[in-house]
Write a structure and sequence with these properties.
Blueprint lengths: L5 H13 L21 E5 L2 E4 L4 E4 L14 H13 L8 H13 L5 E5 L2 H16 L3 E5 L25 E4 L4 H10 L4 E6 L2 E2 L7 E2 L2 H14 L2 E5 L22 E4 L10 E5 L4 H5 L11 H16 L2 H23 L3 E4 L6 E4 L6 H12 L2 E2 L14 H21 L7 H7 L3
Parallel strand pairs: 3-15, 5-6, 5-7, 7-10, 10-11
Antiparallel strand pairs: 1-2, 2-3, 4-12, 8-9, 11-12, 13-14
Helix pairs in contact: 2-8, 3-8, 5-6, 9-11, 10-11
Length: about 425
């Protein structure tokens, strides 16, 4: 099939008239090359089809929610059975208690669970609970980290008041001296430290948490009477079947979960230890659809798969196949790639590519070869990705390296990206 984007272009024009900027949020393609489709028709397993019928091996997994494969039958069956009984009712279903029990049993630090819809909901609940528990105001937050799109944390500050962030204090990730300095400056007013399990931000290399930093953060929280909050929304269940810092022997007081815990159904969660239970009972948080039963049933089945299958090991094997293959290809074509982070959540950037023109050109060429990669955001491997899928991607990327090598002198940086970065 010849690649085309005719219908996608038509839909973009329609959307421009009725949706601000034509699209908003993290799934907007405004910062991607024009060839990237904005609209998709369906997904199955590790593949997606855009509205023009182009098929791709999808390395974004809906920006994280797809863990087991699009349309994974056991999860879809559990959701359909619950839908037949009822979804959003006047009160929650029994499945809410079952899901809470399941998550508490799975996550080492957890004694209780609360459910909501988005990662932003979860991180917002966690900081409010931390403030209620401690009676303090300050939240220590790693500079440049993404924790959601509420006023206190959105990366774009238009419409945000200084008062919205008056009690957010920034530190440098993996810099224990920086974190300790923030504690000392606000010693009696720190409610909690918010951290991701590792650094996974756009336009930059990923970095694993250093053991000394993770353990030091726990010790500082204990010393100053603050809570440790781990934001697992993006990485949860991708690194481990437990919290990401469990490998260091570090347990948070609160953890935030979302994206893939129901394999694409809309639900997120806050888990907490008994230490914070009183604070959680004293806050008022709610949402009209937070208690919907269908996503909870999907989550129960997803977590069963997490416990009982080798989903994680398969994602690691597929991710390693891709990483090794790309490294060999890049070298053979005269390029140097920076591949960072866990192989199941790869970030792929080009060395000597300060304005990302090489990465953009390469990603577009791979896209037209049937591989949906991202030029500046970390990607995701699902357990539906097979070694054969990775071979398909590597065929597309090999051709993409060759195309970039031939056209590199004519490649231009993305104009909106350059305007945002203040470059020329």
């Amino acid at each position: 099939m010849v690649w085309t984007n005719t219908k996608n272009s038509e839909l973009r024009e329609r959307a421009q008239r009725v949706i601000p900027n034509g699209m908003y949020g993290h799934e907007s393609t405004i910062l991607l090359p024009d060839e990237y489709p904005q609209f998709f028709a369906r997904g199955e397993g590790s593949h997606i089809w855009d509205v023009d019928g182009n098929k791709y091996v999808d390395m974004m997994c809906a920006y994280g929610p797809n863990l087991l494969g699009y349309g994974f039958e056991p999860v879809e069956r559990a959701a359909a059975e619950q839908q037949a009984r009822g979804d959003t009712l006047t009160g929650p279903s029994e499945v809410m208690v079952t899901l809470a029990e399941t998550m508490v049993d799975m996550v080492s630090h957890a004694d209780w669970a609360m459910f909501c819809k988005n990662g932003t909901d979860a991180t917002s609940i966690a900081i409010v609970a931390a403030r209620a528990h401690t009676g303090r105001r300050k939240i220590l937050y790693a500079k440049g980290t993404y924790h959601g799109a509420a006023a206190w944390c959105t990366p774009r500050a238009n419409g945000v008041l200084p008062e919205d962030r008056a009690h957010i204090v920034y530190y440098e990730y993996n810099d224990l001296d920086s974190l300790e300095a923030a504690f000392k400056e606000h010693a009696d007013d720190v409610a909690g430290v918010l951290a991701t399990p590792f650094v996974h931000e756009v336009f930059r290399d990923q970095a694993l948490a250093e053991q000394e930093f993770a353990r030091g953060a726990r010790e500082l929280c204990d010393k100053y009477g603050a809570l440790l909050i781990l934001d697992e929304v993006r990485a949860g269940l991708r690194l481990a079947r437990d919290c990401g810092w469990e490998q260091y022997g570090v347990r948070p007081d609160l953890s935030c979960w979302g994206k893939c815990i129901a394999n694409g159904y809309p639900i997120s969660a806050v888990l907490g230890s008994d230490r914070v239970r009183k604070g959680a009972t004293e806050i008022y948080v709610t949402g009209s659809f937070w208690f919907s039963a269908v996503p909870m049933a999907a989550a129960v089945e997803t977590l069963k798969q997490v416990r009982e299958t080798d989903y994680l090991e398969r994602t690691i094997a597929a991710g390693q196949r891709l990483r090794d293959g790309l490294q060999q290809q890049a070298a053979s074509h005269g390029f140097t790639l920076r591949q960072s982070g866990p192989v199941q959540m790869p970030q792929i950037l080009f060395e000597d590519d300060p304005d990302f023109r090489l990465g953009y050109g390469w990603a577009v060429a791979a896209l037209k070869g049937g591989a949906y990669l991202h030029p500046f955001h970390n990607m995701f491997v699902s357990s539906a990705h097979t070694l054969d899928d990775m071979s398909v991607i590597l065929q597309a990327t090999d051709e993409a390296f060759e195309a970039v090598k031939k056209t590199r002198d004519s490649l231009k940086p993305h104009p909106i990206l350059m305007a945002l970065f203040g470059a020329h």
